Amino acid sequence: MQARERLTAQTLGWLILISVRARALRDSCTKTLRIIRSRGGSVLRESLRFGVLNPYRDTVSLTFPPPTGSNLPPVIPLPERFFAGGGTSLRGFALNQAGPRDTGSGFPVGGQALLVLNQEFRFPMRLPYFGTSLGGALFYDGGNVYSRASRISFRSSLPKPTFDGSAIPQCLTNCSNELNYFAHAVGLGLRYATPVGPVRIDLGYQINRPFFVLQIPCPSGTTPTTCPPGSLGFKSAQLPRFQIFFSLGAPF
């Protein structure tokens, strides 16, 4: 469904997009709301995206920590899960780096629920030689990817993982890497208008970085036989605080 008010005017507009899709292995529903407002040559643009994936037939919801053993039921395939992070969603994260992470490698594994809020104030800079082609932007991005809809949380921080004091550290508490919190990021950017769309540079700053657990990597030159994964123990880590993006086109 799409609706806009005063399509030819620059002073006020809104757009609502709702999409529903179903596949053989799952049901999924993605809802997107976007609001655009402009005034005096400056633009305040807001985007709210909410999505939920529901298991279907013999698939089950993601759980953290994941179950172990044999004859496990299938979960939603990795390519079909929600991911966020990057120049068009949460600019405090690198591409697809938001949300739950694997407890071994620390890599993102996606989730069944998505909540992303973007707010961006765009303004012309009117500098010599550039005219109105060069503009600036101030933005706020908030939200995250969650393991499932019931785990959506608006808390801004998570308890840190704790480890024992042994020579091969093992995680004791807060070890699941589910990371169900509401991430906050702010930043600024430059926009240069071209016939094919704006060329933009965005610098994002993640305010509330959580700690997550990953395996201590083996030294270079070793093999899985001489140094099995996890044999050196586990440690906590954080993602980088700053991200920079070079892109063509509007972020949303």
Short précis:
This protein is 0% helix and 40% strand. By secondary structure, it is mostly beta strands.
Describe, in plain words, how this protein is organized in 3D.
It is a single chain. This protein is an all-beta fold. The chain has one domain. It contains no helices and twelve strands. The protein has strands spanning 12-22, 26-39, 42-55, 113-124, 134-146, 162-163, 171-173, 183-192, 199-206, 212-215, 234-237, 242-248. The strands form three sheets. Strands 1-2-3-4-5-8-9-12 form an eight-stranded antiparallel β-sheet, with no helix packed on it. The protein has a two-stranded antiparallel ribbon with strand order 6-7. It starts with 11 loop residues before the first strand and ends with a strand. Residues 1-12 and 22-32 have low confidence and may be disordered.
Which strand order does the major sheet show? 1-2-3-4-5-8-9-12
- Give the tally of structural domains: 1
Structural class: mainly beta
In percent terms, what proportion of residues is strand? 35-45%
- Tell me the number of strands: 12
Distance between the termini: 18 Å
| Run of helices and strands | EEEEEEEEEEEE
Query: Helix tally?
Result: 0
Q: What value does the average pLDDT take?
A: 83
Alpha carbon gyration radius = 21 Å
- Amount of helix: under 10%
Largest sheet: 8 strands, antiparallel
Which of globular, elongated, flat, extended, rod-shaped describes the shape? globular
Low-pLDDT sequence parts = 1-12, 22-32
